[in-house]
Amino acid sequence: MMLGQGGFKFLNWAQTYGSNPELYFQPTCVEEVKEILDLARQRSKRVKVVGGGHSPSDIACTDDFMIRMDKMNKVIKIDKDKKQVTVEAGILLTDVNEVLNKNGLALSNLGAVSEVTAGGVIGTGTHNTGINHGIMSTQVLSLTMMTSSGEMLECSESINADIFQAARLHLGSLGVILTVTLQCRSAFHLKEVQFSSTVQEVLDNLDTHINSCEYFRFGWFPHTESVTVFCQDPTDKPPSSVANWFRDRLMVYYLLEFLLWISTFISSLVPAINRFYFWLLFAGRNERIAVSYKMFNFDCLFKQYVQDWAIPIEKTQDALMQLKSWLERNPQVVAHFPVEVRFVRGDDILLSPCYQRNSCYMNVIMYRPYGKDVDHRDYWSEYEKIMKGVGGRPHWAKAHTCTRKDFEKMYPGFSKFNTIREKLDPTGMFLNSYLEKVFY
Questions:
Q1: Which of 172, 168, 290, 173 is nearest to 240 (CA)?
Q2: How far apart are CA 236 and CA 238, in angstroms?
Q3: Tens digits of residue pLDDT in 271-317
Q4: How far apart are CA 172 and CA 156, in angstroms?
Q5: Where are the alpha helices (DSSP H) in 117-187?
Q6: How many angstroms from the chain centroid is the CA of residue 310?
Q7: What kind and span of H or E run contains 234?
Q8: Ordered structural domains, the chain, with CATH
Q9: pTM higher than 0.85 for the full model?
């Protein structure tokens, strides 16, 4: 009999959301997952599966049963000819990356963090950048999951195709994801060219920039005209030495956190801190080469509040200039750096923020130096207003104020997804307070 642990306290990585599940489980096999779901049905309990806990929202929180899949973390199969890998859903992408690299393979795209699980990363629509690349869920070829009734389902483009269209971005609302098969490519190195520019120059030449390299993104430093541009392309050249690069930036990050902590008492310092940080690390031009997954991943610095919306790509300039103008008109509101702007190919996944359109993701943050809460409510409120006004859709992992009425307007496939969800989980076993706001 699978035993649950009482008294467990869950906190997300940013320590902004947490919960106290009645019982906490770490199953080691499919049979134990079924036991947990059987027990939940008997006791009329809800179940929430948590991955790496990086989502900066309450999407993983529950007061009932929590399942962490970290003991179901094996690589099941690698097909070098087809360049595919099948893994258990609880494996961290850090481990997937290393195994693939040893076998001459790599994922074609990754988010900023790989301390996330294979099942969780597709559950919220994790993305990176590159107009010829979709969100990470588009790399999924098939998956298996267990529904609330204990039924095992295999899903792909040819088997349970409608469910597959929903399950590739599942919100943890359809069942327990057990295995995932991902399309890979041959292992590769990336050369990154980083250079400084201005917000107006980048926006005026946006199409040229987007198509200038395989992975293009830029960061605007609020309260300035400064932008740092990142262009990444595959290369046959060997990785460059990063020891000094990493050490120098680490020292700056320590200084930065201290300065931002000081700014919580004197908020008017934030614009100067933004300018100083840009001048210190991002002014001018720099190049480096690294293994692909090491280039995609980067240090998220320290705890933070995050918002990230996908908007129609043609609305990029309008949205960013609205945000910039509002900050200029409201100097009492300070914004930490950077506003990160990325570009992603459209897809056909029902709840993908990129559903049926190429998209621009505009990510805003407010740091929490030494874990201190920082007032971000006015900034967040105006940002959401702007994003909604240009037809945006929020990143599912991030905190937002949207409800079912919003999602019904934002997503042409919302009704279809909800029909599939209600069929697979008629009693709402996999709901929590976050998902109730989404579906009710």
A1: 290
A2: 7
A3: 999 999 999 889 889 999 999 999 999 877 789 999 999 999 999 99
A4: 18
A5: 118-123, 161-167
A6: 12
A7: strand 226-235
A8: 75-186 (3.30.465.10), 189-394 (3.40.462.10)
A9: yes
